[in-house]
Amino acid sequence: MPLRIDFALTPRKLLPHVERLFEASAGKILNLEKRWRPAQGAPVFTVRGRYTARGWTEWTQGFQFGSALLQFDATGEKRFLELGRRRTAERMAPHLSHVGVHDHGFNIISTYGNLWRLMRDGKIPFNREENDGCELALKVSGAVQAARWTSLADGTGYIYSFNGPHSLFVDTIRSLRSLAVAHQLGHLLMGEQDRRISLLQRAVVHALSTHRFCVYHGEGRDAYDLRGRCAHEAIFNTNSGLYRCPNSQQGYSPFSTWTRGLAWALTGFAEQLEFLRILPDAELAPLGGRSSLESAYRQSAIDTADFYLEHSCRDGIPMWDTAAPQLHRLGNYLTRPADPFNDWEPVDSSAAAIAAQGLLRLGNYLHAEGRHAAGRRYFHAGLAVSRTLLNPPYLSTRLEHQGLLLHSVYHRPNGWDHIPKGQRIPNGESSMWGDYHLRELALLLLRHARGEPCPYFFRNP
Description:
It is a single chain. It contains 15 helices and 9 strands. The protein is mainly alpha-helical and 461 residues long. It has a single domain, classed as Glycosyltransferase (Alpha/alpha barrel), CATH 1.50.10. It has a 3-stranded antiparallel beta sheet, with no helix packed on it. A hairpin with a 2-residue loop joins strand 1 (45-47) and strand 2 (50-52). The mean pLDDT is 97.
């Protein structure tokens, strides 16, 4: 395993770094709020340190306003609560009924979901009107997400991506929190002839389809079946309902692993394991039973975690794709800390920020199961990745740069990422999802360091 794990590292030892992050974060949230013009759409990634939009789909708005809510959670500064609350009310309503994306967990859980969680966590006073409004938004979002459904020949199915009904994206596992929260609130989807469709059933079936078609388990599925490898997209024939092939939108190829997709899978499955834990056996029995479901989710979480650790550099930062075409020019790069300024292939720090949280959550889950050695290994691996991200050259402390996490990559195949003058690859820029997930990671570390309960959207009523 290339990543060097320091078992003496603790969340408390990272506390000064976490506090420095939130000090830098405050100015960046306010800078973006002051300079961004809503008519531009949602900010997506930076170019020369300034956030820009990219009209593909509106999937990052929730990260913008959710970041202010995470800032309040960490620091108690009420101006960030009011900013996140006000912008959620003003600008997030159209996203609730957005039927064209698979990103409801990103947009809605990050805004309405965080406000709802803050009340449940006792971080803000309970307000019945605000609570009911957030719960209604979360219910609507979960149902709209669940309605993007493709049925397969074997009776299973999946939430299809913005590419269309033939497309299952690995990313969507992280948006299943939308269905899970809506189900937890007692909601369902109403279909034709008043058919009552369970959001839990769709969440579980989608997760199992992702486990089956997007994550590889070393079982000889094809010539590139390495345990833990991920395909960004699985393609289906919608006429027959049969699987056809892997594909990739943002990775190098269908047979390599785009590392942000890998990170989405790792963290998504780890979080869904937390969701299964709060559900009664009676709810899970018709869906295959707790043991079977936990086994599948756990396998995907562990397989992707191991693959991430085996294919990241010494400091826990991955290249943007594990088979990017110029990696051979970097020599034995996995045995060294990542170099975001190399001449050949970019790293993706946003993948690391997402994966680090998944490693911590998986570690906590396994420890609670009594698998202490494995839990300790993954948890401390998450700490090791976090330490790298909380320091230069990844943490951006210059106020004039609007991003918080440097060296994030958006869409390498499309050439959308900014390449600085005189250099050959993208570096030095940030993304909304990278910044948000670094803040979400830092909040998780902060709660651990203070001995406070971890932030969960899933909790027994």
